[in-house]
Amino acid sequence: MPYADIPGARLWFKETGRHGTPVVFLHAASGTSDSWGLQEPAFIEAGYRCVAYDRKNWGRSESLAPAGSAQAGSAADDLEALAQQLGLNRFHLVCTALGGIIGLDYTIEYPGRVISLTVSSSFTGVSDQSYLDVQNRLRPPEISNLPIVLREVGPSYRAVNPKGVAEWLAIEESSRHEISAEMGQSPRAPMTYARLANMETPALLLTGGADLLSPPAMMKLVADQIPGCRFEVVPEAGHAAFHEQPEVWNRLVLEFIGEHGD
Predict the structure, then answer these.
(1) pLDDT at 105 over 60
(2) pLDDT digits (tens, 9 = 90+) for 182-232
(3) Distance (Å, whole) CA 88 – CA 49
(4) Is the separation of the CB atoms in 129 and 109 below 8 Å?
């Protein structure tokens, strides 16, 4: 698979289904572009061109900044550089977890690029105190300190699909580089309810009914701030809803983006 050279990094990416409207996938902190293996066949069959990439400092992507450099830049600007390289003038953006924080930031900063935005199981990065108060009540330290597979993979899936859990863990274990705190990327601007209220891009927010990290009540608060936003819950699924229940998740997302052609 090829690399795209962008300012400060070489991004590993893959394209499948070379015809049709592009769909760009943004992975979680616990994943890479490999996370979307249960989505790509369904989206290709529906006629889309799928683009997934490892973000800077994840998976096979390489940072070109000097060791210890604080020149991390914005993940939204990395996506824009990749879109320019691949000639992605307009595309659907599909994100999960940390990828959703980036997807919201990118969509607000580059609205002309994004046909529709899907954000699944994400903290969203909203910094309004009223939201943070709810987040702190719903996600106390006891949850954040759980082993990652317990935090992110729902109990129903863990009970019946040990092979799928092992596949998820293998991707998680290969995902991140060792990076210092100053190398972490930040949004182009803080995410606030006021920023979300100005969004005009069609948006779908969805999460798992058993998600410990971004439960339905928390994501619904954000969905209510985005004009016309659709909100869905995947029953019993955890934070990795796209992996745990791909048939349901894919159907909801494909129905949504199918209503918003370029």
Answers:
(1) yes
(2) 566 778 889 999 999 999 999 999 999 999 999 999 999 999 999 999 999
(3) 10
(4) no
* AA identity, residue 186: S
Contact between residue 122 and residue 101 where contact means Cβ atoms under 8 Å apart: yes
Comparing CA positions, the residue from 217, 240, 85, 54 lying closest to residue 152 is: 240
Facing residues of 179 across strands?
Answer: none
Q: Are 259 and 251 in contact (CB under 8 A)?
A: no
Cβ(31)–Cβ(175) under 8 Å? yes
What's the CA gap between 235 and 56, in Å, rounded? Answer: 32
